[in-house]
Design goal:
This protein is 36% helix and 20% strand. It is built from 13 helices and 14 strands. It is elongated, with a radius of gyration of 25 Å.
């Protein structure tokens, strides 16, 4: 890339600093909590659309073709396309505009969770790092190219989508893809920085399954418990402790999780990353009754290269085998219900977008660009489902996402915009 042109692009981003900061602060002030959470609908209803209407005005002033697109009424995605001159590869920038609830307001130490407060180093508030900052940085990266008089060969496409936090991708990212806003590669602008590892590039994510199992026992008065558990008693004819039977299932899954520490692996994840996490438990009636039921729910993280169906079969076989030595469970096996699947993504490092993004990231920050696996989930999974090679890179420390200390460093917003701008040029080509 021409050094003078590169310097001009980077200076243009620097010149846009105040506009970038203001735009991020403004959208953080909008309470765009995902409606599925049910958080204060009187103030958050329509918040997603308010954010996308705000960013639409930025595209309008830039003269970029865009539209608000609703798959579900009142929840507008913003889709935009900068039309290239032709003959180049297209690039998509994806990010969600919805946020999680602020949680216990007392934990914010008097700070308004949606303040959008700005100081010398940070912009504060829910959504600043996850991930309104990254979305705004990508838009202003294109503005920096415009101001440099650059017309790319390939199209540059934007999706600012709703519903990511609760996986309603069918009205967000997937809907936008089906609407025709696709590209040859994609960057998801989720935060990928840490204090010691700036601008990592996530090329994979875990898969996440949620499931629950339930075991039925047989209730009786606590005064008869001795008949249930002691030799010479009436045993199952009198009662069956569902908690006791449930522990057979629980312990079997804990042992399987321990085995996973050796058997489940991926080169981008540390050992032990993939887990079978017991999340909730409920059951029983009262202290005077031998418990007739127990139900436990789980969150299961599995490797990017494996399938949800394969993991489900492994879990079900484990539970089945654990029950074969127990007469009650053999006859009345646990009921397993699969509740949720967020598929992983797993982008081949041989894809050009990986090397190009690494090169441009290191032009801005020499320590940047380490390939890594995302410990959480994001919409890159649904981009990959449509055949688009996707990577994740964005400003901010992931540890602040969903926390009462959420904030995004201004310096990283500017650096991210620079990385995005140089990647647009390198990937799409200059007309």
């Amino acid at each position: 890339m021409d050094k003078k042109l590169t310097a001009k692009i980077l200076q243009n981003v620097e010149n846009l600093r105040d506009e970038i900061v203001k735009a991020v602060s403004d959208v953080v002030k909008i309470k765009s909590v995902t409606p599925e959470f049910g958080w204060e609908p009187e103030v958050s209803s329509g918040g997603e659309s308010e954010v996308t209407r705000y960013t639409k005005t930025i595209f309008d002033k830039m003269g970029i073709e865009n539209e608000l697109y609703e798959k579900e009424k009142g929840r507008a995605n913003l889709c935009a396309r900068y039309k290239g001159a032709g003959g180049g590869r297209s690039l998509l920038f994806n990010g969600h505009v919805d946020v999680v609830p602020p949680g216990d307001l007392d934990e914010w130490d008097g700070e308004d969770p949606f303040s959008g407060r700005v100081d010398e180093k940070f912009i504060y508030g829910r959504g600043s790092v996850d991930m309104k900052g990254g979305n705004i940085a990508a838009i202003f990266a294109l503005k920096a190219l415009q101001q440099a008089g650059i017309h790319t060969k390939g199209d540059i496409v934007f999706q600012n989508v709703v519903g990511e936090e609760c996986k309603v991708n069918e009205i967000g990212t997937t809907a936008c893809l089906e609407k025709g806003y696709t590209a040859d590669a994609a960057i998801v602008c989720e935060p990928t920085c840490s204090e010691n590892d700036p601008f990592m590039i996530h090329v994979a994510s875990v898969g996440v399954l949620e499931m629950k199992w339930s075991v039925k026992g047989k209730s009786c008065h606590v005064g008869l418990r001795g008949e249930v558990i002691r030799d010479g008693g009436g045993g199952m004819d009198v009662g069956v402790d569902a908690f006791e039977k449930g522990m057979i299932v629980y312990n079997a899954l804990k042992e399987l999780e321990r085995q996973w520490g050796q058997t489940k692996a991926h080169p981008l994840y540390k050992a032990g990353q993939f887990c079978i996490n017991a999340a909730t438990v409920k059951g029983g009636v009262s202290p005077s009754v031998v418990p007739p039921d127990i139900e436990m729910s789980y969150a299961i993280t599995y490797p990017p290269q494996e399938s949800a169906s394969g993991i489900q079969k492994e879990i079900e076989l484990c539970v089945h085998n654990a029950c074969q030595n127990d007469p009650w469970l053999r006859e009345k096996p646990p009921e397993i219900t699969w509740l949720f699947d967020w598929p992983p993504f797993n982008t081949d490092l041989k894809e050009d977008i990986c090397s190009i993004l690494q090169q441009t990231a290191r032009m801005i920050c020499p320590e940047a660009g380490r390939f890594n696996g995302f410990e959480a989930v994001c919409d890159a999974s649904f981009l990959q489902e449509k055949g688009i090679p996707a990577v994740v890179l964005g400003p901010g420390y992931g540890k602040y996402a969903h926390s009462v200390a959420e904030r995004v460093p201004i310096s990283q917003l500017i650096d991210a915009a620079k990385i995005y701008a140089l990647t647009m040029v390198s990937w799409c080509g200059i007309a």
